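# step 3/5: fold
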Amino acid sequence: MKKLIAGAFAALFPLCAGAQTYQELAEHAFRCVEADSLDRAVVLFQEALKKEPGNAFNASLFAGVGEIYHRQGRQQEAIEQYSLSLNLRPKSVLTLLARAGVYMEVGDERRAYTDYCDVLDLDKDNREALFFRAYINMEQRDYRAARVDYERLLLLDANHFNARLGLAILNQKEGRLKEANDQLSTLLTAHPQEASLYAARADVEKELKAYDLALLDMSEAIRLQPSQAQHYLIRAAIYVKLGRKKDARADLERAVELGVPRVSLKDFIRDNE
């Protein structure tokens, strides 16, 4: 949001020198956004758009309205505004990334993927686009393409946490369990307070049938993040493997208390029989 606003302010003066009223409306709108007066900002943006519908700067105004709708949880309307902006300025990396992010939120990974590809056509080293395209490819089981993007991202930033974690998860999905385990252990050395890493390594250890180690890691994940329901489901599965059914039931009950629908436990029981 701040990047879009900063860019809009920087571009406003040269584009609007001959349109003082339009300029004043736009400037006031962006200041309202910065002050969190979002509804007022939308009104001002819309007044400016009506004032000069052919102004080249309207791409920034549409993007500004899109950001406001996004912040208000109005995702579909945000997408519409970003699309109007991109109709005027199709090579805006910031707006493409913004729309892709909303597509991800609403579960439209296909359209998000297209936007991330468009970003990478414009900026082949864009880290956000590389990461999310890798993630989408991994979810779609295109593991080769996911690996290319993760490795490209790690060439740009060898310490990129999410890329290193993503590559470890990718190795797990491809059955390269020792490699995944080693990568997660290395990450834990650098991030010993990161609960998600203990949970991820426990999942790998469970596949390796190292159930005692998996239990230790999941218990540490729960200690660090006791309100995460998914952790209790994973530990319950480990308890089942160890024959500790009473402990497994206790963890399942805790997961329900934290919001897991009881009906969904039928799938858990089926998968862990």
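# step 4/5: annotate
The domain at 124-192 is CATH 1.25.40 (Serine Threonine Protein Phosphatase 5, Tetratricopeptide repeat).
# step 5/5: archive (pending)
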